[in-house]
Design goal:
Layout (H helix, E strand, L loop, with lengths): L2 H14 L7 H12 L1 H17 L8 H14 E3 L7 E3 L4
Antiparallel strand pairs: 1-2
Helix pairs in contact: 1-3, 2-3
């Protein structure tokens, strides 16, 4: 592998780890360090810098999906013809 290919590998792997949480994240870093210490350290540095730049945990608040589902259920109802369509009950 040449330097450009190594750089691309580091970017690709670090990017794929953006949503991974501990302890799996540390295991992934160790996996790459076992293959190549320098590449593993570069992947860890890149992945941790991306994680530090974001203000939220990977995946966001798990309750957000539940809240959104509840809001949607309150706003829309199945149409009377039950053809699988929904109508907005709170729209003007």
């Amino acid at each position: 592998m040449d330097d450009a290919q190594r750089d691309e590998l580091v970017e690709t792997v670090a990017g794929s780890l953006e949503t991974v949480i501990e302890p799996v994240l540390s295991n992934a870093f160790q996996y790459w360090k076992n293959i190549d210490e320098d590449i593993g350290q570069r992947i860890e540095k890149a992945a941790r810098s991306v994680t530090a730049q974001t203000d939220q945990q990977p995946g966001g608040d798990p309750l957000d999906n539940q809240r959104e589902t509840l809001i949607t259920a309150q706003r829309f109802r199945r149409s009377p013809d039950s053809a699988g369509t929904f109508v907005c009950v709170q729209c003007p």
